[in-house]
Amino acid sequence: MLAHDAHDIDVVVLGDSGAEGQRDPDPAGGWIGWPRRLALQLEIPDHKMRSVARRGATAASVAGEQVPAVVHLRPRLALLGCGVNDVVAGFDRDALRADLARVLAWAESAEAALIAIGVPTPPALDRLRGVPAAHARMMARIDAFNAELAAGLAGAARARFVGGEALVAASDPALWSPDGIHLNATGHALAADALVTAARTLVARPPAVAGRR
C-alpha cells in the first residue's frame, strides 16, 4: 500500500473480519463492508480510507498491531469493529479495558471521532442452544465485552458506542451469510445506515483542541 501523508486519510478502520467487510464482495475484488458503505454515505472516497482490519483480530491485536500501523495518521473518523474473536476465545476484562483505552487514546491524540460497534448475537449461537451451558457462556461474554466497550467510550466527547443489536436484527437470517457469523451485503448496508447519523454528528463536531485542519 502506498504511504499517505498524515492528513490524506479521512477514515481509519480497525477491527476483525466483520470490519474488513467479509461476505460483502466488491465486484472489482476484495470486500466492501459497512465501513466503506458508511464512507460512501459521508461522501468520502476509497482513497481517503485506510483499513487495517484483519480476519482473526482481537481487541489486543487491534491495540497492539493495528493502532501502531496508523498512529501517524490524523483521520476525521475512526471506526472500530471487533469482539467476536474475543468472545469465542474468552478474554480478561482488565486487559480488555487497557486495550480499549489505547485505541481511544490514539483517536483522541489524532483528534479523530471514534465509532465502535458492539458484538451482536449472531445466528450461529443458535447452534449452541442444545448445550445450555455453552450458550449461556457465550451470551455472558458478549454482554461483558459490550459493557466494557460502552463504559470505555462513555466519557469521551467525540466517541460513540453503538450496540450490536442497534445495527441489525440478529434474528433476521436475511442479513447474515450462511456461516451465521458474518453479515451479508444486505446486513452490511443496514449497519452503515444505522451509523450514518452518529457519524455525521461526530465528524461535524469540532475537536476539543482546534487547529488540526
Question: Can you describe what's shown?
Answer:
It is a single chain. This protein has 213 residues and is of the alpha/beta class. 44% of the residues lie in helices and 10% in strands. It has a five-stranded parallel β-sheet with strand order 2-1-3-4-5, sandwiched between helices. α6 links the parallel β4 and β5. The protein is globular.
Concise summary:
This protein is α/β, with parallel strands linked by helices and 213 residues long.
List the helices and strands and how they pair.
Layout lengths: L10 E5 L1 H4 L12 H9 L7 E3 L7 H12 L6 E5 L2 H6 L3 H17 L3 E5 L14 H22 L5 E4 L1 H4 L17 H20 L9
Helix pairs in contact: 2-8, 3-5, 5-6
Task: Label this structure with key terms.
213 residues, alpha/beta, Rossmann fold, 5-stranded parallel beta sheet, globular
For CATH, the homologous superfamily is named as: SGNH hydrolase
CATH A-level architecture: 3-Layer(aba) Sandwich
Mean pLDDT comes to 92
Order of secondary-structure elements: EHHEHEHHEHEHH
What fraction of residues sit in β-strands?
5-15%
| Structural Rg | 16 Å
| Biggest sheet strand line-up | 2-1-3-4-5
Give the helix level as a range of percent. 40-55%
CATH fold type: Rossmann fold
Helical region count? 8
What kind of sheet is the major sheet? Answer: 5 strands, parallel
**CATH structural class:** Alpha Beta
Low-confidence stretches: 209-213
